Amino acid sequence: MSAMTDLSVYLSVWGTAGETVEETLSRELAEEVGLEVCGLSYSSSQHWPFPHSSFMMGFHASVSPAHTQLSVDHTELEDARWFSLEEITCALQVKTPPRTGDPPVLWLPPKHAIANRLITEWTGRQQRPRDQVQV
Fold this sequence. Notes:
The chain is of the alpha+beta class. Helices cover 27% and strands 16% of the residues. It has one domain (21-129): Nucleoside Triphosphate Pyrophosphohydrolase (Alpha-Beta Complex). The protein contains three helices and two strands. 10% of the residues are buried. Its EC number is 3.6.1.22. Its cofactor is Mg(2+). This is NAD(+) diphosphatase.
């Protein structure tokens, strides 16, 4: 794994008045999972009708491989975990939601969700030869 290129984090955050998007993402990642952001890249946005016509912005956030220990704030998040490329690649192949009684499976957000787009982009970046990875 190369420094600051192979780790991405996906998180929903709320900004504070006067903060830039970059400051908001860095603060929220530090508060909610104890990670220090080393780099951000914008992906896309998506309309979000709840609670009042809003939108979501998708970013890839890189963290230092030397500091990947998650420290979850359980008042903010139920869970936070790292997934391997193999786990994500398998999850992208799952076409139907698991039914009650089925063995546990990693179920990703639907294709129209910005979270799915971020995960798919990350997977594509990991599968490219190193000399073709765009920064």
